[in-house]
Amino acid sequence: MGSLETPTTTETNGSATPAVTSNGGDHKPPVTANGAPLSSTDSRIVMAQESEATKKRRASMLPLEVGTRVMCRWRDGKYHPVKVIERRKMHFGGPNDYEYYVHYTEFNRRLDEWVKLEQLDLDSVETVVDEKVEDKVTSLKMTRHQKRKIDETHVEGHEELDAASLREHEEFTKVKNIATIELGRYEIETWYFSPFPPEYNDCLKLYFCEFCLNFMKRKEQLQRHMRKCDLKHPPGDEIYRSGTLSMFEVDGKKNKVYGQNLCYLAKLFLDHKTLYYDVDLFLFYVLCECDDRGCHMVGYFSKEKHSEESYNLACILTLPPYQRKGYGKFLIAFSYELSKKEGKVGTPERPLSDLGLLSYRGYWTRVLLDILKKHKGNISIKFVSDITIPLAAMHLFNQLLELSDMTAIKAEDILTTLQSLELIQYRKGQHVICADPKVLDRHLKAAGRGGLEVDVSKLIWTPYKEQG
After folding, report:
1. How far is CA 356 from the centre of its chain?
2. CB count, 10 Å around CB of 215?
3. What DSSP assignment string belongs to 366-432?
4. 12, 65, 129, 346: which is deepest, by most CB within 10 A?
5. What is the pTM of this model?
6. Peptide bond into 351 cis (omega under 30)
7. Which InterPro entries match (predicted)?
8. Contact at 8 Å (CB) between 38 and 30?
């Protein structure tokens, strides 16, 4: 359910066929010292001896140590390099019968999982574990097609951690504590660790009420809860409805338990998100698909009630069953429509992850280039008299401010976006924005589709500072 596509497993006679074997190359029949082929009887003896030696060598490796690197058969039927992160003894088995929690070094941590010994190719075990070789834990090996899908999935949690904090975070969260959740009609595989209360440590699956987000250990508990829960939508005010889409604003101070439960849920799908227990300072904007059974959450973003840095978004997530439908782009666009209503410019909370920057850069590109196409690059100039700027940059600076007023995008974000597209040029002694239609069309095509549109006429909302 992640942003990585899972290749289809090839099957032969009903069993998965690995594409990579451990020994590689063709098998050569054993020969005598002078090169003559062995008799069939001698061959069987040699092969039996080799088999016994192999068994002894493999047995001496077990159980595998944490940190061991080995090849593991993944769900695509192929072998991929992994690192053993943790191990646990199986309830019914011998002294060397363990399950291993592995990290696929080619992929994001969201794909880490428990595997059985038979999935590991013990012939590929690295005898010396080199801990100096760091896994690129947060990197993704993606095709260009997969990268284009990133901004339609979810924005990764904020990577606000320095190197030491990152190591501590990864050590604390290295093993997923909850494997799956049930939310509404979906059973969803989780991606990351989330610090649920200690009494849920022994649960591999949790059951969420999709309306109030209370979570339970057993299906029977959820069924009893649903008979008593009178909510059919998130608590809070419905501020937007267009067709079957609704957006609810939930005040963390007024709905503290809901806000905390939403953070627990989000952490299962965001790696480096900071979990805020003090949700009083935040507003949560929960996007729902509505039908005759109620309003079903598809994603959300949060923002601080008062941000000195002009942050209009703190965290954003589209739940896995609803990804690649344009909801992530919709949430980003919605955060800027709120900024316009407030009469402010906005920017997402920093620092952004690589994937977060990719999502926002796509949004900024589409919005800015659409305006430049309509205005043919002729943005009206608003003179600024209270800032000292080199004369050559004054024209550009005022153009950036005008674009910022029109879009609610911070001028710095506009500048970095246009620079990344190489649309700022130096002509006749001053910096100008290049608005060649062919160049704009090429960049717009590369930026991809814009996703669902926010119908501003359906937004009924009062900025927080004016409430009450």
Report:
1. 9
2. 23
3. HHHHHHHHHHTT-PPP----SS---HHHHHHHHHHHHHHHHH-B-HHHHHHHHHHTT-EEEETTEEE
4. 346
5. 0.73
6. yes
7. Acyl_CoA_acyltransferase, Chromo-like_dom_sf, Chromo/chromo_shadow_dom, HAT_MYST-type, MYST_HAT, Tudor-knot, WH-like_DNA-bd_sf, Zf-MYST
8. yes
> Cβ atoms within 10 A of the Cβ of 299, count?
21
Among this protein's residues, is 349 annotated catalytic? yes
* Sign for the pseudo-dihedral over CA of 289, 295, 297, 302: positive
Q: CA–CA separation, 350 vs 241, rounded Å?
A: 30
Residue 218: pLDDT band (50, 70, 90) is: very high
Residues 192, 197, 202, CA angle at the centre, nearest 5°? 70
- The answer to whether residues 353 and 373 touch, using CB atoms and an 8 Å cutoff, is no
β-pair type (98-104, 79-89) = antiparallel
Length of the chain: 468
Ramachandran assignment for 80, one of left (phi > 0), alpha (psi -120 to 50 degrees), beta (any other): beta
82 secondary structure, DSSP code: E
pLDDT(172) > 90: no
Cβ neighbours around 296 below 10 Å, total: 24
Helices (H) and strands (E) in the chain, counts: 10, 20
Catalytic residue from among 168, 349, 402, 453: 349
Evaluate whether 140 touches 156 at the Cβ level (below 8 Å): no
Tokens of 70: 């080995």
Residue 249, both tokens: 């604003």
What does the pLDDT average to over 231-236?
97
On whether the CB atoms of residues 170 and 83 are closer than 8 A, the answer is no
What pairing do the DSSP bridges indicate for beta strands 180-183 and 205-208?
parallel
DSSP state of 95: T
pLDDT at 451: 79
If you ran DSSP here, which 8-state letter would residue 70 be given?
E
The rounded distance, in Å, linking the Cα atoms of 134 and 130 is 9
Structure-token match 């690649």, residue found: 324
Pair 395, 361: CB distance under 8 Å: no
Q: What does the DSSP assignment read for 121-140?
A: EGGG--SS--TTS---TT--
Question: What residue has token string 């191990």?
Answer: 87
CA distance 147 to 141: 9
